[in-house]
Specification:
This protein is mostly helical and 506 residues long. It has a domain of 227 residues. The chain is 82% helix and 0% strand. The chain contains 26 helices and no strands. The longest helix has 38 residues.
């Protein structure tokens, strides 16, 4: 408790200095950001009033408290992941009790369509798990690789990438880690480098579609981007970075790959026996359910990818205007209903809802929305946006700055928290006419790829870390960094070039 109080007091002092130091001036950018802020909080939009209000002593104090509380939640998350939900709830409670933000504003700030989408996606992923889809896919990797280490590594990477893009990074890393742990039992080999590869490819795949990562889902709903824009701007880069990651991993881990070749050659009979056992004992008894699950997974992915044209067709047929984001929210529930009729007994749905949904994560997301709203409402975000704009107002410089800064922070902080803090800044830049919506993809790439730098950079990293430790597999920072520093830095460099290229082509 003493440490927590010291951390909070330190952050309050630091936040007060920062907010007092940043003064929004009466120039073009300052006026634009101040007016946008006044409009957001309901203050009469008047040039002199907006500038004086956002810089006033009263607002400097509430800005400092709001920023300190947000940083406090991040600090508690870094100190101990299990504290993040309690810290977020505590932070919101302090802001309400001190009058920094009102409870009505907090409730309205939550993107409930995002929350509903996440809950539905988790339940649907739980259904697919019960049907045996993920274990079936893992077995196919072993069967198809036929003793080739390069093919085995590539298939593990592709499965991690694909599952992460379709059903989310957490679900993907759980099953890929399970597969790798099974390989440890069969081959009796050091699997630490394989788990690192699995995490890196999982995070890479989570940037391909908006549903792959909470960051992508958050940006999708907050920025009002379309799924087709993600397919256009995010998917190609994700595929490019997957191939780059695979090639660099083979080069960086050359000694490990050579050792793995010898082991696979020695234990090839064990692998074949494991595959045969699966087909004789499990697949034959559950073949129908597994096939239904695979079909549902494919259809779900297609429906999400074609969300925009499907909405357009339905709007014309029904003669009503359907919002694409609202329709996307309920796609997981459509497939839950299909599952109820063809594969899962009705009484099991309530069990899956309680077991498959990560309720602690859902509560944390809700609290983050509220904390992010507080940063915008009190004027912290406009001030930080103004500070960034003083570095450069060039679109290309802003894009580079957004990728690098979000990636750097995401390497050591919870990447969703980082993006929640940066998104309002990006929205202010877009609304001020300084840059296009490409800046949201700069945040996506920075948050996702930056999370690859360290074992605590993203949720997938932490999940893999905990699963490995339960099986007495220790993931060392030294080994992680020896791989990630080269692969991730290259991925981020490619991401910077990609967003700059797309900005120029607009």
């Amino acid at each position: 408790m003493v440490k927590i109080v010291i951390v909070l007091a330190t952050l309050l002092a630091a936040s007060l200095l920062v907010m007092k130091f940043i003064v929004v001036k009466n120039d073009v950018i300052g006026l634009t950001l101040a007016k946008l802020w006044c409009s957001e909080v309901g203050i009469e939009v008047n040039t002199s009033t907006c500038i004086s209000t956002i810089n006033s002593q009263h607002y400097v104090i509430v800005q400092s408290l709001s920023l300190a509380i947000f940083l406090f939640v991040i600090a508690m998350t870094v100190m101990k992941t299990e504290w993040r939900v309690a810290a977020a709830i505590l932070g919101v409670a302090i802001l309400i009790l001190t009058g920094v933000s009102n409870s009505k504003g907090f409730i309205e700030a939550v993107s409930w369509n995002l929350i509903l989408f996440l809950i539905g996606s988790m339940v649907f992923a739980g259904i697919l798990r019960e049907l045996g889809v993920f274990r079936f896919l893992a077995i196919q990797i072993l069967r198809v690789s036929k003793g080739s280490v390069y093919l085995l590594l590539f298939l593990i990477s592709m499965l991690a990438f694909s599952l992460s893009a379709i059903v989310g990074e957490v679900t993907s890393i759980v099953y890929i880690t399970m597969l790798v742990l099974e390989l440890k039992k069969i081959l009796r080999v050091d699997i630490e480098p394989l788990i690192i590869l699995s995490v890196l490819t999982t995070n890479t795949g989570s940037s391909a579609l908006p549903i792959g990562n909470p960051i992508g889902v958050y940006i999708l709903f907050q920025s009002r981007l379309s799924v087709s824009q993600f397919i256009r701007y995010a998917l190609p880069l994700a595929v490019i970075n997957l191939l780059v990651l695979y090639i660099l991993y083979i080069v960086v881990s050359r000694k490990y790959v050579d050792m793995l070749k010898e082991v696979v050659k020695k234990y090839i009979n064990r692998v074949e026996a494991f595959i045969t056992s699966f087909y004789t004992k499990i697949y034959n008894a559950r073949a129908t359910k597994i096939k239904i699950g695979v079909v549902l997974l494919i259809l779900f992915a297609l429906t999400v990818a074609l969300n925009d044209p499907i909405v357009h067709i339905l709007s014309r047929i029904l003669g009503i205007d359907i919002d694409p984001h609202s329709f996307l929210t309920f796609i997981p529930y459509i497939y839950i209903v299909f599952s109820m009729f063809i594969a899962v007994p009705l009484e099991e749905i309530s069990i899956l809802v309680s077991r498959a949904v990560e309720w602690s994560s859902i509560v944390f997301f809700i609290m983050l929305f509220m904390l992010g709203y507080s940063l915008l409402h009190t004027g912290v975000m406009p001030k930080l946006a103004y500070a960034l704009s003083t570095i450069s107002t060039s679109p290309l410089a802003l894009l580079t700055l957004m990728v690098i800064s979000s990636a750097t922070l995401s390497s050591v902080l919870d990447n969703l928290s980082v993006i929640v803090a940066f998104t309002p800044i990006a929205m202010l830049f877009v609304n001020a006419g300084l840059i296009s919506s490409i800046i949201f993809f700069a945040l996506l790439f920075g948050g996702v790829f930056g999370g690859n730098y360290t074992p605590i950079g993203s949720t997938a990293n932490i999940v893999a870390l905990s699963m490995a430790e339960k099986e007495k597999v220790k993931l060392s920072w030294r080994r992680w960094l020896s791989t990630a520093l080269i692969t991730t830095t290259t991925q981020i460099a490619i991401a910077v070039l990609w967003v700059i290229f797309n900005q120029i082509m607009l």
